[in-house]
Every structure is written in structure tokens, then in C-alpha cells.
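User: Can you predict the 3D structure for this chain?
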Amino acid sequence: MSSQEAEYHSNDFDWEELRERIEDDPTLAYHFLPQSPSSSSSSSSSSLDSQSWNHFHSRHSTGKFFKERRYLFKEFPELASCGEYSKVLEVGCGNGSTALPILRCKESILVFACDCSTEALDRATENIQASNVVSASSRFRPFCWDFSTCRSPKWLMCDSCYKTSLPKQSMSLLDFDNCETDATNIASSKEGECCIGGMDFVTLIFTLSAVPLHRMYTAVAECFSVLKPGGLLLFRDYGLYDMTMLRFEADQRVGFREYKRSDGTRSYFFSLDIARDIFLSAGFIEVELEYCCVKSVNRRKQKTMHRVWVHGKFQKPM
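Assistant: Here is the predicted structure, written as C-alpha cells:
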């Protein structure tokens, strides 16, 4: 275990005490004001979301921005102990910082990775190919998909259908609906052989918070649909009162607990109740759900930072 993993911890402070301190601070009161309808996130465009994230990954394409999420197996040991040839769908793969450690962990695991940003997929593919992980490139299967606005492609269930569909992957996301008939024919011809099943795991690591709240329920329902019965969804994202939330100015609010950065990318901050409602509404069974509270110190600035993330595991019923 690396020194970084050995030092990883998640209960440095009490979330309720943090909540009381923040809600009693008058300089932060604007975070809790009701949101006016005119500033609602309902007008958010999927194409604008994709464009914003394309620009984001273009600006942050250097190696310094890429850090493998080595903590995954401490928080989600199921990934390390999964069966041979397990399938993982990494939703919102970004630059591959989650996919690469999963590929590194087990030589037989298959990682399907989607993102709404083609720039992100390019960066992820470059990072995977540059790694020294055994057969990583052949086990990494990237594709463009906005899970908050489009149905999942039917070939996602099957290796054979994935290979058949490769020439189609340069199409726009909405074109997946247009080729639904072709995908259905492929599935029908292979039904007895390979098109029954789905993913063993879906990972949602700092992805759902980038989706407008009104689209989250649909997005999570799509994750539910691609899992095998008994499969697990592994969730980690920004929690309510995380220091990142408190850095947003009043004019960056676009909804209750929703914010938009100057580059157009969004961030939502989850309470346990909201996260639970989203996942249970899709049909999941709650396995774990808690705040992860980490105190870190910037020694150069002599500043203590209180990070809050929501950690969850949800299972599709058998």
C-alpha cells in the first residue's frame, strides 16, 4: 500500500458540527436562500454541458491534472475482489483517473467508459495507452454518451455487439436513438449467446454532481438499466457543506445547492436524503450511504480544509 493510501481516512470531523458552524455564519447565508424561478437550472442544455466539459479538458490536458484515484479499493473493496472478466461501466470517465486503477487492479477486468465530452475520452485513451498496465488498451472501451439525456446504447450489454458498433461511435449522442433498430436486430440475433446480462458494476465518481438536478433521476435510472441483477453501483460525489461549495459566490447559484462555474461547468452538493431519494427512486437497494469527512492541511498557506463527500453503494435487486 502506498503512503498516500495508508494515510487515507474519512472521519476527521463531525458533519453535524460543521453544518451548525456554517449555518450560523452570516457571511454564508446566501447559500441557503430560496432560489428564484428565473435562475432555475431547468433551461440547462445538454449540448452546452458537453461543450463546457470539452473546453475544461482541453485546458487541463497536462499530466499534472491526472491523478489516479488509488483510494478506490479502500472505499470500494468489491472492485478488488470481483470475479474474473467482470464488467465495469465508468460513467463520466473524465481523463481516466478512475478507469486506470481499476484496470491495474485485475488483469481480466473490462472497463467500459463513457463521457459526454469527446475531449475527455481522448485524454482518457491517451492516459490508458501510456500506462504500463497489462493489456489495458484492449480492456478499456470508451464511448461517447450523455447518460442524463440519452438512453443507453443496446450494444453495451454485449462484447460482440460492442465490436460491431465501433464504426458508429463517431456519431453524435442523439444518433444512438436513430440506430436503435440496428442494435435491436443485433441483440435479437445474439440473444441466446451473449446479449443477456449487463454490467457487474457501475461507478459514478464525481459525475452526478455535474448533471442538473432535474436530470439526475433519469440519469440514475439509466445506470440501473445497464446493471446485471445483483450488480452494484458505487457512488462518490460532493457532499453538502464541502469547502468547494462555500467558495461559490452568490451570483454563481443556479438552483438550490446547484452552482455554475465561470467556464460553464456545474456542481451540485448532495445531502444524504437527496442522494437516497434519487437512487431508491430508480429501484436500487441502499447498501451503504454516509458522509465522508476529511480534514486536510495546506502547509504552504497554513490553511485547514474541510472536505465533505457522499459515499454510497447501491445494489440492483436480484
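Residues 1-6, 38-43, 167-196 have pLDDT under 50 and may be disordered. The two ends are 34 Å apart (CA to CA).
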